[in-house]
Design brief:
The protein is mainly alpha-helical. The chain has helices at residues 2-14, 44-59, 62-70, 80-83, 93-117, 122-125, 145-160, 165-181, 187-206, 208-224.
Length: 235
């Protein structure tokens, strides 16, 4: 999966569009052409996916459950753990508006991918799974929309604030893992979200019609974090 993510990212950087996959100028990204299929129902890989969900369910602590429920919010401000208390919607209107636009774009792309694969969520597959939330019956499992948003946001934030890159991606990992803790996604759903978010984030960084909002949010965010307008260049 990691090799596929890197390959997809290299293709994105090297070309303005992938044939039948990504259209230029901000048009839809066909994730069904870029992501691997989920494990087939009844396969050994699908069984392993379910066993991980059940193992996490057995070991999840009250604190982990609380944190996972808090991460049900699809918001860039969940990254305050990584960027600090200055990351507040009330004082960062341009950042809030930019990432709301990102969330809407992500949601539309993931909806099409979910409908393409129509993978049932863990509680539907097994009555041994006891989820911490009830998902919509027509909201399929693969890929994870929350994980996709988490990694899309991480790509964008890490380019805005490269000084915090490691903490940002660690938070994205936890954001995705919390979907397994919730019992509403398989690990492979989260991994597909990581890949999807990487592809979407890389594409948005190149789209001319996103640049003005991106730069405005970047400037606002760096000022709030008391960082110079541009990060220092590393050799």
């Amino acid at each position: 999966m990691k090799r596929l993510a890197l390959l997809s990212l290299m293709l994105l950087i090297g070309q303005p569009a992938l044939a039948d996959g990504i259209s230029p100028n901000g048009a839809a990204i066909e994730l069904s052409n870029l992501l691997p299929p989920p494990p087939a129902a009844g396969s050994a890989a699908a069984g392993q996916d379910l066993q991980v969900v059940l193992a996490v369910q057995r070991s999840r602590t009250p604190a982990e459950q609380s944190a996972a429920k808090a991460d049900m919010e699809r918001s860039v401000f969940r990254f305050a753990d990584a960027l600090g208390p200055s990351l507040q919607a009330a004082t960062l209107p341009k950042t809030a508006a930019f990432f709301e636009r990102v969330a809407d774009f992500d949601k539309a792309e993931i909806k099409d991918a979910k409908l393409y694969w129509r993978r049932a969520r863990p509680p539907v597959t097994s009555d041994q799974v006891h989820p911490l939330s009830k998902e919509k019956p027509d909201d399929w499992s693969y890929p994870s929309g929350h994980a996709t948003f988490g990694y899309t946001a991480a790509i964008l934030l890490a380019n805005m604030v490269p000084e915090k890159r490691a903490a940002i991606f660690a938070r994205a990992d936890l954001y995705g893992q919390h979907r397994v803790v919730m019992g509403v996604h398989y690990p492979s759903d989260v991994e597909a979200g990581r890949l999807a978010g990487t592809v979407i984030g890389a594409q948005l960084l190149q789209q001319s019609d996103w640049q003005a909002d991106y730069q405005a949010a970047r400037t606002e965010l760096r000022a709030a974090l008391h960082l110079p307008v541009s990060p220092a260049q590393t050799p």
